[in-house]
Specification:
Elements (H helix, E strand, L loop, with lengths): L3 H13 L1 E12 L2 E7 L13 E6 L3 E5 L3 E3 L4 E7 L5 H8 L5 E8 L11 E5 L4 H9 L5 E7 L2 H11 L5 E3 L7 H14 L4 E7 H13 L7 E6 L8
Parallel strand pairs: 8-9, 8-11, 9-10, 11-12
Antiparallel strand pairs: 1-2, 1-7, 2-6, 3-4, 3-7, 5-6
Length: 236
């Protein structure tokens, strides 16, 4: 049975959502697919790197994605869909095909970089690949990411294609891997004084790493956007 949110989305979608068509579906790896969408409603939307859109999945409700890119004149955007487990979003990502209609709300502000050319040090996970790519390519920033991932083999093709190969650390039991993530972040911040620290992905990891970095004397206030938390489907 469709949820109340899904039913509400179906009604509101007629008035608020932007319609687009899937023009290309590409298998990046067994864990990721890239979807390209186009439509007149996507023109002139004022997208900035780091913005989010909420995709309406019929009968399921809304799922949030960060576009890889957005062509304002052509009316086109691309998403990198993480095929994680049997979640509704992953099922949609596996089943969607060229010619399907995709409705979404947005773009809306999510992570906004300050004006200027300062480099970016970014922590995240599989849900953060797109925002790191958008900051590097569309915002033209020097981005040094450190990603925690569940399976490096699944992620390598996507990271290689995005230019972030080797920037991942595989998760370990009890979050033991966060010691290595912390060390990489600390080294990156020391190598790039004045860098903007951006923290995304899993809420519990963000909290633990912020505490460790504060212990190092890191005084800069990071830009934080938790995309999900253990025990919850999503936060955004």
């Amino acid at each position: 049975m469709a949820s109340a949110k899904a039913l509400l989305g179906s009604v509101l979608g007629r008035f608020l959502f932007h319609d687009s068509k899937v023009t290309q579906v590409r298998e990046v790896s067994r864990a990721f697919r890239q979807l390209d969408c186009e439509g007149p409603a996507l023109r002139g939307q004022g997208w900035t790197p780091g913005d989010k859109v909420q995709v309406y999945l019929p009968g399921l409700g809304m799922r949030t994605y960060t576009p890889l890119s957005w062509d304002e004149q052509r009316g086109a955007t691309s998403f990198l869909v993480y095929l994680h487990g049997d979640s509704p979003g992953a099922k949609w990502g596996r089943d969607v095909k060229v010619g399907d209609t995709v409705q979404f709300f947005g773009p809306r502000r999510s992570l906004v970089l300050d004006e200027g050319p300062s480099p970016v040090v970014l922590f995240g996970d599989e849900t953060s690949f797109a925002v790191a790519h958008a900051f590097r390519t569309a915002a033209k920033r020097d981005v040094t990411p450190v990603f925690e991932v569940s399976n490096r083999e699944d992620c390598q093709p996507a990271l290689r294609e995005l230019g972030f190969e080797g920037q991942d650390v595989e998760r370990q039991a009890g979050d033991a891997h966060l010691a290595q993530v912390h060390e990489r972040l600390r080294e990156a911040l020391r190598a790039k004084p004045g860098a903007t620290l951006v923290m995304t992905g899993r809420a519990q990891s963000i909290q633990a790493l912020r505490s460790r970095l504060k212990g190092d004397g890191e005084r800069a206030t990071p830009k934080v956007k938790a995309y999900w938390a253990v025990g919850k489907a999503g936060l955004d």
